[in-house]
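## Example pair
The file below holds two records. Each record gives the amino-acid sequence first, followed by its structure token line.
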Amino acid sequence: MKSKKALIPIFSIVGTLLVGWLWMQSTLTGHALNKEWLENQLPEKLDEDRVLPFGYTLGLWPAYFEEEPIVTKLTYQKGPPHQFLEKIIQVWRPVEVELEISGPHTIEEGMSASAWRTCFENSFECRSDKKKFLAAIYPDENLHANDSAELTWFDSLDLLAARGTHLKIQSQTYRIDRYTVITEKGATQTFSLKTVKGPIGEKARELFVKTLSGLKVKEDLQSSREWIQNKIKSVRLDEIKNIANPKLRLVRLIQIQNWIYSLLSVDPTQIEPFFHLAGVTHLLAMELLKSKTIYFPNQEAWILNLKPLFETLLAYSKDFPNSEAPVKNIETLLQDVLYEQNKLSH
């Protein structure tokens, strides 16, 4: 039988772990959330080419960060055509600044934005709902491993503006600002900005908060679908090929890519956008691979993402019924890109 002295270290370790767990639960779910207010900073004249829907939000999205186009990447996770894309990732600056757009999701049926706000305004009410919400918006990482974690409620005086929770996590090298917008019907859309610490990260957060403050929340997707579909219908690829300035051609192709990602966020039920995204990406790839000029410092990162993007589009396309022809066409475009890349490597 163990002595009482031998048991003391065990009780000490268990006690320390229990205190840590209770501290985290109390900090993130066990008190009324502080509130932060967002002030709409939209300009009087809007550039309609930059007004895009992502899920249940519609707003003016930046096309550039630090004078370079913002590009988007996609990883395969089973969803379409029956469910929304799990996430879309905007690369504002490779390695240093990325924005992950997740959802839409419904965390708890019957919980509206008002119900969630009431829940988070109370110290010890609906603890299980708070834990479920936190697990849904931050499922990938262990909060214990982070240097700090803070949860607040963000709001606006504009009734149509975005509101919800802001989870802020910091480590020694980076910071995550995860804003979860909640519609009145209870759907959530999460925007998670991960930035390195330093001036670049500060600039990115300032631009993102400005973007977030101007978002309008929609309660249905139909108007957003019509908005982005009309944009894409206006695209004439022959006109893009005729743009004389190669740098402007790259910018225009990246813009159209981002429009298609926007469409996929509100309507993942059709295979055509995946195929169109492959087609536009092929044009972009040919511009990048055949040009001997470096127009943007991050062009090499864009080239490295070409093959993974085509492979992701192939995986999504194969989940659609009767998709043999589109899949074959995407495979052909991929082989064309790989051929050009192979020529460069030799």
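Second record, same layout:
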Amino acid sequence: MTVSSVTPMWSRRGAGSTLSEDGKERTVSVRSAYQVIVSPGDEVGVILSSPLLPQIGSLLAGTSFVVCRSHTPTCVSPILWVVEVEHNGKVGPGGENDNPLNAPPEITWSDAETDEAIDEDIDGNPIVTINLEPIDGLTMKLADNIVTIKRNFVTFNAFGTSTYRHSVNSDTFLGYPPGTARLTKYSAKNVAGTPVLPWGYWEVTATVQFRRGIRTTDARAWWKRVRHEGFYVLNADSQIVRAVDANKQPTQKPVLLTSTGTRETNPANAHWLEFQVYSSLPYSTLGLI
């Protein structure tokens, strides 16, 4: 139950072009035919669904407005069919420039400020009291660049796009290095057909927020960063035990930890942990620019 071969019939090729009476539209039609070899008993649906044939709605190679409109299959023998294919399309006075798919992307830059928790000052020193006790709850306004891109596409894949909703760029995007761009909004609106695109198209709008690394590398700009502290420490016997205070009682606040999990008594040597929470994907494949 399969198509084994599809061969173009060069003798059946043809094309035509007509201009409307008002001279505002040009209609282009292209005819072709294919010999299709199938298994005995195959139904016509197997033939028409073969990826070896032009599919209904697909563009004619080399054009942006001539679309496959019809298939006309004829059975010649139990294993041989001839399929006639018709492509046609209309274009306005601007030629293929009338095609919304040829329009360049609309790019708008803006910015946003958000309050983010901080644990170090501008020089990288831990924020502590005069008695070297860590201070929590301080925030800093971070200013991020935001770009909104609007572009037209012939199709829209909601499932494929959804994987980008929790990702950062793995490639350079609009001049920003990997790890700094995050897709924050994505919408698509179906637009009714035009003379050039009778089947319609999708108007896609995407918003990307850019962030540089603060007290970390740009590649980790969107990673979560926390001070390494807890109620349990690694003791000299390589055992994890409850941290205690000067009176040998369990501490009521978490204590600072070194990179190995032992107790750190000097806040100036505080260690921070970073966690990746967004996947890394190539933003160039979104086709926005």
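Notes on the second record: The radius of gyration is 31 Å. The chain is about 5% helix and 40% strand.
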